[in-house]
Structure formats: structure tokens, C-alpha cells
Amino acid sequence: xxxxxxxxxxxxxxxxxxxxxxxxxxxxxxxxxxxxxxxxxxxxxxxxxxxxxxxxxxxxxxxxxxxxxxxxxxxxxxxxxxxxxxxxxxxxxxxxxxxxxxxxxxxxxxxxxxxxxxxxxxxxxxxxxxxxxxxxxxxxxxxxxxxxxxxxxxxxxxxxxxxxxxxxxxxxxxxxxxxxxxxxxxxxxxxxxxxxxxxxxxxxxxxxxxxxxxxxxxxxxxxxxxxxxxxxxxxxxxxxxxxxxxxxxxxxxxxxxxxxxxxxxxxxxxxxxxxxxxxxxxxxxxxxxxxxxxxxxxxxxxxxxxxxxxxxxxxxxxxxxxxxxxxxxxxxxxxxxxxxxxxxxxxxxxxxxxxxxxxxxxxxxxxxxxxxxxxxxxxxxxxxxxxxxxxxxxxxxxxxxxxxxxxxxxxxxxxxxxxxxxxxxxxxxxxxxxxxxx
Length: 438
What we know:
The protein is α/β, with parallel strands linked by helices. It has 14 helices and 15 strands. The strands form three sheets. It has an eight-stranded mixed sheet with strand order 3-4-2-1-7-9-10-8, sandwiched between helices. A five-stranded antiparallel sheet has the order 12-11-13-15-14. The protein has a two-stranded antiparallel sheet with strand order 5-6. Helix 3 (66-83) runs parallel beside helix 5 (107-126) and helix 13 crosses helix 14. The longest helix has 20 residues, at 107-126.
């Protein structure tokens, strides 16, 4: 069984519905479909979810949202009519509008209707079973998903000999209220469905042919990452890459289900395959998976003679930061010096207090502050066993006039991380891509 999820751009209009039908017909194993609300048809268009949020905001200020609601309704009715689907949406839409006017619908329930109507239409179009997410995605009172109940319920609902369409993005609280995930939550619903049904593959269909090796806003036409481990994906995500929501990865990773990111508009492209591990001889020449990074970090550097022989210096520094709820991303160090790298935005409000407390508790010989720092990461398998990688990075960046302010490489072979000035951020990523990928 293959569980498929189609994002908002894949659900934007009737033409996209037909593409989805072709994708499903091309492989009869694709029997369970999770859908998002209709996305943008063109750059100036509106996402249905955004319009639903706007509609709710209007009602809270006593402003009539009829015009906005009509845009939402007409979008789904146009898809229905163009595809020739025989489905009475008018009755449900009218009932929903009445509840909006009476202010008896919650924000979560209202914004979930985008996915709900998408799924109703898609199920009718394909002749598949419609399964409401509220029937099986069960939340605990603390907002976490009750995985055991969720998985067992879906297994009982899906008919093995017939396809099923499920709306993403929402589920049911124990008190019967609709609750949504965070934005992008349809990815989570898809992963939960794949895990519940022990799918062979979870396909996530979107408008790009997989994950890219670098940010296309920085590197022109970057290559697609053909394959990536879950650990590499975590490194890329943590270091700044815009990838799947972490909660959308956990269910399938726990069940060791491969995740394939595909392009609805280019269904022949293989996309990016994500799984726990690949064999050692699989693509032996590829050791850089992706290049990413984030700007606006601050480095606090301490020096103290004999620091390496003193117990607890780093603990004292980290304790001060913990008291102020400051996370530490990296801890590069030397024999008699240590640095901590933290996000500037979190550190700035408490900076002078923190510096004073570190001075009092550690009594360093010197303490320096470096801000406007960007962190760049080259992520890939077996980099630690490739002679000369760090040297090649230093040489390439040096030739480009980029000064390295910090370097950090863990023993897990997954990344080489270094800091540069914010102004050199894009240059550093381009240099690395040109040096290792092109």
C-alpha cells in the first residue's frame, strides 16, 4: 500500500484534480489519499485556508464576511461543476455560513473546512470512500495525538478493496471539539495515516520535484537531493533548510516507512527518497547531501588560563544561559577557551545581564562578543572519512574573500558547520555549492 498526500497547490483547481487522478491510476497501490485545502492557482490568488482565517477574524470584530465566504464557496463549486461531480455542497456551505453568522463555530473548526470540502470533492471525483479526519485523528487534552487510538481507529475505517480520501490538518479533542495542527499540518495527517496502515511508502506530493541541495533564492537552479536519511534531514532542518514539519516525519520514521517527496506537475520525476539508511555502496560518489544555513547568531567567547584543568567551567556558562531560557546551538572550544553560539534574537534582551553573571561565576581572563554571525552547514554522509574536505572548504572560501569565524564538526560524520559574517552568508553558500556540487 502507498499512502499519498497532496498539498494545496495540487488541489488548486479542476485541472490539478485530474492530474491527481492520473497519478493514482498510474499505480493501483496508491489507495489512501490525504488532501489539503485548495491553494493558489496563480501568484496573486488566495489560499482557501488564509481566507477562512480572515473570515473568522472579521466575525470577531463584528464585520460581515459574506464577500470572503462567497469567494471560498465559489472556488469549490467551480471545481465541482467543471469536473461534473454530483455532490450537494450548497447545503453544507449554507449551514456553515449560518454558524459563522451566529458565532457558534470555533476558529479551528472553520479553518478545517478547507480540507473537509477538498476531501469531499476528491472522494466523489475518484469514487473513493470519504473518511473524515475527525473520525480517527484523536487528540489528548494536552493537544498531543493519541497515537494508539488514532492508529487502531483508522485501521477499522479503511476498506481494503476500495480507495479512501481523508482531509488533512485536523482531528478531534476528547470533548468533541475540532482541533487543527499548526500550518502545514496535512503533512502530519498523511504521516499518521501511513504509520497507522503500515504503508510500504508515504508519498508527499507538492509543487517541487523533491528537496533541493540549496536555497533556490541563493543558488540558481540547485540540484534535487535524490536521497537523504532521516538523520541528514534533521540536520538540514535544524540548520535552516525549509523541509517537512518534524511532526510529519516522526510517525513514518518510527515505523521505518520510506517517505518520497514528489511533484504533482512532474509525476515522472523520482523526487527525493527519505529513509532511515541506505546501503554503503549506494551512490558512493555522493557525500554532500545539502548546503544550508541561518543568519543572526551571536558568539560569546571566554578565555581563561588553565581552563582545561578546571572542572565545571562550561557547565557554569550553560547554567547562566539556561536561567534565561537561552538555547545554545553550538559550543566550539579550544584548550583554554570556550565559545557558545546562540540566536541573537533570543539573547539580545538579556545580553548584559548574562554577560555580568558569566563574569561573576566563571571569572574569565577575557570575554568577547561577536554578533552579526551566520552559520552555514554542509550536510552529508561519510564526510569525516573524506580526506581534505575541511581544507577544500577553507581554500574555496578564502579565495572568495570569506572569513571563517567559527568551525564545528561532530563525530557523527553528518556535517561540517562554520560561522561567517552575515554579509558573507549568501556568498559562502554559493561557493560551497559550486565547489562540491557542480
